[in-house]
Design brief:
This protein has 648 residues and is of the alpha+beta class. The protein has helices at 4-13, 21-27, 29-37, 46-52, 66-74, 100-114, 118-133, 149-174, 180-195, 197-203, 208-220, 224-251, 257-265, 268-272, 280-300, 303-317, 323-329, 340-367, 372-403, 413-433, 435-446, 454-478, 487-510, 514-535, 541-553, 565-570, 577-581, 583-588, 609-615; strands at residues 55-58, 61-64, 85-89, 92-96, 560-562, 599-604, 622-629, 635-641. The strands form three sheets. It has a four-stranded mixed β-sheet. It starts with a helix and ends in a 7-residue tail after the last strand.
């Protein structure tokens, strides 16, 4: 029998030195071996091969994405050797993939290794393997029998949703007290439910989340707080499910699903927010769903997938404006293909989808001569953001030069400040990711087990670059970044971490060390659960004690002033929302309300000496009732307002 592998080896050994990929292609060794190895099953037409191998098959549509990675790794000639057979009969799609691509990949990789191109051979072999492992979902409903892959996948998705909702319920039960932002959303939802959407628009520039809370409250009859928690749990479940599907489609490996789902469900930073009421939930969930539509567009180049991407991206921007940065830069992930014109056309289609989506409202505004106002507002917003970033960093650099650096090196303040802020950001990112995930990701990178398939690298890099750009911009402008800005970068980091974990499991199974792997995995899960319990709506007992005391002791509907919105809300009294929002400033300026107010609730954390000094001027009018502290510097004091002269 003819041995193509032996012929490849002999052909590779005839030259005086190593033979590169181009030389192998020119001599025809690799192509000849593959043709003889698969018995003529390979289609010789590049156009048909590209259509068949465009990407994963999702929802009965061809999305063979592996072809892009193979073209980048080995040249366009490699696409001719990718067999993928598709037949359409009686209105149903029947998919069949030959088992011979694995043998062909092995023979070609062997020849390329012997020819001195080990890295290229490894990439090709990995791309072909990812293609052969890509998930198949048959469009024929008759194939979805009990116990089939489609039914198992539905059960897996339902299990993910149930697990996410259970974690949300646990977090809410552990710490039902909302923070300042959550209380603000509930107050806005109350305004919307009582007076309509117009009132919310006058108070807040992006009231979408309070509008949804108020709508669910009116439809279901639940309280505003219960409606907010129900909506948040649903959005977080959508986030967990959507991100798991996104990671699977991005890497083209169905076997990755349980590992990425495990990492997302146990992610401590995400679990920390489950007890809160945040509009970020809608931003994260809808943005991930838009990324699913983006992957389908990259695979099929169909307009409807591009329009879905634009629609879901616009919906996520209604929750947080950072989504507009993703919308503006994500088309760069489509800059791949045969020619520059093809790459530009693929990206231009996405921008055209955004334009088509924005065209109807723009025409309506133009018809009623209302277009100029939003355009001016947009331009003013962009100009204000740019000025805020520049002025914030310039002012911080000047303060840094005056208070830290020697005057002789003051000119280095911007560089030194930027380097210091980026170092702090890296440490905060590591803290947000958690020690267990940092160790797993570090091991995967060091051991070469966390590398993404070639077909996924460009999209993942563009996404990671956008997420880091947003975070770095916020840090340089404010010299501070909230942890919720780090959720998207951390989620993207979970994909290579899941690849490393799956590789670890496969290595343990291959070496028959499943017991050691299960022990390490169990210890890691215990550590993550412990971290999650610590972060689950981190309890502040002194706040809980103060709230419980006020609800028991203060009269219902008493007039209350406070410098903390959460304490004012849970006191059960009536309060002025604007006065509470400016509570610290009013006390320091000695303009805090006394007339018509029965109780004061003041929170101090030791970081505002001016507040402590200003409170001394109100001693004659305030009778202390209760005091709660956390054992350090933070205290909560409840006063009764008495008759007498106010502060001078």
């Amino acid at each position: 029998m003819h041995q193509p592998g032996a012929e490849l080896a002999r052909g590779a050994g005839e030259g005086a030195g190593p033979i590169g990929v181009d030389a192998v292609r020119e001599r025809g060794f690799a192509l000849g071996a593959i043709d003889r190895g698969i018995g003529g099953d390979i289609d010789d037409h590049l156009g048909a091969a590209r259509d068949h191998a465009r990407g994963d098959i999702v929802g009965g549509e061809i999305e063979h994405r592996a072809i892009g990675g193979i073209e980048r790794d080995t040249g366009r000639h490699a696409a001719r050797e990718l067999p993928a057979h598709l037949s359409v009969r009686s209105g149903h799609q029947h998919f069949h993939r030959s088992t011979r691509p694995r043998k062909a990949a092995a023979m070609l990789a062997q020849a390329l290794r012997r020819a001195g191109t080990r890295r290229t051979a490894a990439d090709l072999e990995g791309s072909l393997a990812a293609y052969c492992r890509a998930p198949l979902r048959h469009a024929d409903s008759t194939c979805q029998m009990p116990g089939s892959r489609s039914e198992n996948q539905r059960h897996f998705h339902l299990l993910l949703i149930a697990a996410s909702c259970a974690l949300s319920a646990l977090a809410i039960l552990r710490d039902p007290i909302l923070d300042d932002v959550g209380v603000l959303h509930l107050l806005l939802a109350r305004e919307i439910a009582d007076t309509g959407i117009g009132a919310a628009l006058a108070l807040f520039d992006r009231p979408v989340y309070p509008i949804l809370i108020a709508g669910l409250h009116q439809l279901s009859g639940l309280s505003l707080l219960a409606s907010a928690h129900l909506l948040g749990a649903a959005l977080l479940a959508l986030l967990v499910l959507g991100f798991t599907r996104f990671a699977v489609l991005l890497c083209g490996e169905r076997e990755l699903a349980p590992w990425i789902a495990l990492l997302v469900l146990l992610f401590p930073l995400l679990n920390e927010y489950r007890s809160q009421v945040l509009r970020d939930f809608g931003f994260w969930a809808l943005l991930v769903c838009s990324l699913l539509a983006l992957l389908r567009y990259q695979a099929t180049l169909r307009w409807r997938h591009g329009l879905w991407w634009a629609l879901l991206g616009a919906a996520s921007a209604a929750f947080r404006p950072e989504a507009l940065v993703y919308m503006a830069l994500l088309p760069l992930s489509c800059l791949q293909g045969e020619t520059r014109a093809t790459r530009l056309m693929n990206a231009a289609r996405l921008y055209a989808c955004m334009g088509l989506l924005a065209l109807p409202p723009l025409l309506v505004l133009a018809r009623f001569d209302m277009l100029q106002a939003p355009l001016d507002a947009l331009a003013g917003t962009l100009e204000s953001v740019a000025a805020t970033i520049a002025e914030g960093f310039a002012g911080a650099s000047a303060r840094y030069a005056d208070t830290v650096l020697d005057p002789r090196v003051g000119a280095l303040a911007p560089v030194a400040l930027a380097a210091g802020l980026l170092t702090v950001l890296a440490l905060k990112f590591a803290a947000a990711l958690g020690p267990v995930y940092c160790v797993l990701l570090g091991w995967g990178v060091a051991a070469g087990r966390a590398g993404l398939p070639s077909v996924a690298r460009r999209t993942w890099r563009v996404l990671g670059g956008i997420a880091l750009l947003i975070v770095v911009t916020v840090v340089l402008a404010r010299q501070f970044v909230a942890e919720r800005y780090l959720v998207m970068p951390c989620l993207l980091a979970l994909i290579p971490a899941a690849l490393a974990l799956r590789s670890f499991a496969e290595t343990a199974r291959r070496e028959r060390r499943q017991g050691a792997f299960h022990l390490v995995l169990g210890i890691a899960i215990v550590l993550l659960v412990a971290d999650g319990l610590v972060r689950f709506g981190t309890r502040q007992d002194y706040r809980h004690q103060a709230i419980a005391w006020m609800q028991d002791e203060l009269p219902a509907d008493a007039r209350v002033f406070s410098n903390d919105r959460t304490l004012a809300y849970y006191s059960g009294g009536r309060f002025d929302r604007d006065a509470v929002s400016r509570g610290d400033a009013l006390i320091v300026a000695q303009r805090a309300p006394l007339a018509g107010v029965e109780y004061w609730v003041v929170r101090r954390d030791g970081r505002n000496p001016a507040l402590d000094a200003a409170l001394a001027a109100y001693v004659s009018r305030l009778e202390p009732l209760a005091r709660f502290d956390n054992g350090r510097e933070a205290t909560i004091e409840v006063f009764r307002v008495t008759a007498g002269a106010g502060p001078q």
